[in-house]
Amino acid sequence: MITPGRASAPASAPSAASVAAAAGDATDAITPDTKDWTWVLLRACPDCGLDTPAVAREDIAGLVRGNASAWQVVLAGDEAEVRRRPRPEVWSALEYACHVRDVFRLFRLRLDLMLDQEGPLFANWDQDATAVAERYAQQDPAVVAGELAEAAEMLALGFEGVRGEQWQRTGDRSDGARFTVESFSRYLIHDPLHHLYDVTGERLQAAPAPAPAPEAQDRA
């Protein structure tokens, strides 16, 4: 996770092109996040308000879908504002959304590893280097919205497919942190929910209601 930051939108907005250029120039100003966020598995987050230990594993897929829907609203906003960094060292809404999309993709890959292999060791992922290399600040918000929704659905389907003892299968990070699929699912969901709070400033008062699967929505 990137260092959290909250700020209100400014009163006036320059062109989207100028904001994108400015954001790109400020990329190196981002303060790398070196904190170990596994503590969210033990207690509620005092910033975003999510009580991660209380989240039911069966709700993870719906929470992923619900979070993806919220990002669609964010990314459909005024493009200049979506691209604007509240401060030089804090990501814009667009950059946060790119990060969430890539987290969804990464966690689907890691989930598959845990289900297919015995105690896999996850490859390192540098989120800050990825943001620079992939030019998060210069991506198209509409394209990112579609990619984020697709990545979220793939991850949600992955968690929906977990059965019985599979929840206790394990995977390891290179820093020694070990996850079961169950703890991995809870660790995952805090990240996109926290970053939505970073962007909107809206703190969770209770666990958000999971969104139904697309099939259930079609039947309604």
Give structural attributes.
single chain, 220 residues, disordered N terminus, disordered C terminus
Layout: helices, strands, pairs:
Elements: H1 16-25, H2 60-75, H3 79-83, H4 93-116, H5 127-133, H6 141-160, E1 170-172, E2 178-180, H7 181-200, H8 214-219
Antiparallel strand pairs: 1-2
| Gap between N and C termini | 36 Å
pLDDT averaged over residues = 86
Structural class: mainly alpha
Radius of gyration, in angstroms, nearest whole number: 17 Å
Number of strands: 2
**Order of SSEs:** HHHHHHEEHH
Low-confidence stretches: 2-27, 216-220
Biggest sheet: strands, sense, closure?
Answer: 2 strands, antiparallel
What global shape is seen? Answer: globular
For the largest sheet, list the strands in their spatial order. 1-2
Strand fraction band?
under 5%
Describe this entry's structure for a reader.
49% of the residues lie in helices and 3% in strands. It is built from eight helices and two strands; from the N terminus they run ααααααββαα. The chain has helices spanning 16-25, 60-75, 79-83, 93-116, 127-133, 141-160, 181-200, 214-219, and strands spanning 170-172, 178-180. α2 (60-75) runs parallel beside α7, α4 (93-116) runs parallel beside α6 and α4 packs antiparallel against α7 (181-200). It is globular, with a radius of gyration of 17 Å. The model is unreliable at 2-27 and 216-220 (pLDDT under 50).
